[in-house]
Amino acid sequence: SQTIHQWPATLVQPVGSPLSLECTVEGTSNPNLYWYRQAAGRGLQLLFYSVGIGQISSEVPQNLSASRPQDRQFILSSKKLLLSDSGFYLCAWSVGGSSGKLFFGSGTQLSVL
Amino acid sequence: DQQVKQNSPSLSVQEGRISILNCDYTNSMFDYFLWYKKYPAEGPTFLISISSIKDKNEDGRFTVFLNKSAKHLSLHIVPSQPGDSAVYFCAARPGGSNYKLTFGKGTLLTVNP
Q: Under an 8 Å CB criterion, which residues of A touch B?
C-alpha cells in the first residue's frame, strides 16, 4: 500500500533562517507531488506541484522553492524565512486514474518568530 | 479571486440530525468535485467525490449533491455523529490530467452529543 511521510511535524524557526521540509512517498511510482499551505483562517493553497523528477511548477510568487531530486521525494525550501511563511504545510501525492484524488501527509506546523 | 467558496466557517448540529455543508464555485471548467475531512494537526483525508456528469453520489452516511446550473454542491451527513466533528474542505479541479485541486476555506463542523 502507498504511504506518505512528511517531517518534521512541528518546527519553530527565527526570521531569516533557512528552511527544508522533506516528503517521501512509498508504494507508488511516478506520482504527481504537491506542496500545500494552510495559513491561519485560510483554506489550502497550492504552492508547488511536480509531475516528474526535476519538474516543478510554482503556483504563487513567494519566498519558497521546491525541488524533486528523486521520483518519490519532494523538498520545500527557503533561504530566508519571513513571518508570513508561518502555517501548516502539507505534502500530497496523486497518480493517474485516481480522478484527482489527493493523498496528504500529516503536515508540518511551521512557526516563524 | 476565490474560485471555491465555503461561506459558512462553522456549523453546529445535534448528534443524530442531518449536517449540510455547502460549497459554491465560479469556474465553469471545474468538472470534478471532492470533499475532504481534516482533524487538527493532521492532513486532510478524502471523503467523497462527484463527477460533473452526475448530480448525486452516496457513500454510507455521506451524500454529495451537485447543481451545475447553480454552481453549487453540498455534503449531507446523516445521521451525524460526534466523530464527524472536523473541518470539511470542498475542492474542485478542471478537466485534464494535472489534478491540481482548488480548495475552499473549510467549514468547521461540530456535532454535539
A: 6, 9, 32, 34, 36, 41-46, 49, 51, 59, 90, 92, 94, 96, 98-107, 109
pLDDT digits (tens, 9 = 90+) for A4-16: 999 899 999 999 9
The amino acid sitting at B54 is K
pLDDT digit string, tens, across residues B14-45: 999 999 999 999 999 899 999 999 998 889 99
Asked if A106 lies within 8 A of B43 by C-beta distance, the reply is yes
Per the structure block, which three cell numbers stand in for B8?
Answer: 459558512
Q: Which is it for strands B107-112 and B10-14: parallel, antiparallel or unpaired?
A: parallel
Report d(CA A11, CA A44) in Å as an integer: 19
List all residues 6 or more positions away from B17 whose beta carbon is below 8 Å from its beta carbon.
B79, B80
Q: Is B11 helix (H, G, I), strand (E, B) or coil?
A: strand
Residues of B in contact with A94 (CB under 8 A): 99
Hey, what's the cell of A64? 519558497
- For residue B74, CA distances in Å to A14, A95, B83 come to 42, 26, 20
Nearest to B42 among A36, A59, A107 (CB): A107
The alpha carbon dihedral of A69, B41, B50, A36 has a sign of negative
Q: What whole-number distance in Å separates Cα of residue B92 and Cα of residue B64?
A: 13
Cβ of B53 under 8 Å from any chain A Cβ?
A: no
CA atoms within 13 A on the CB side of B17: 12
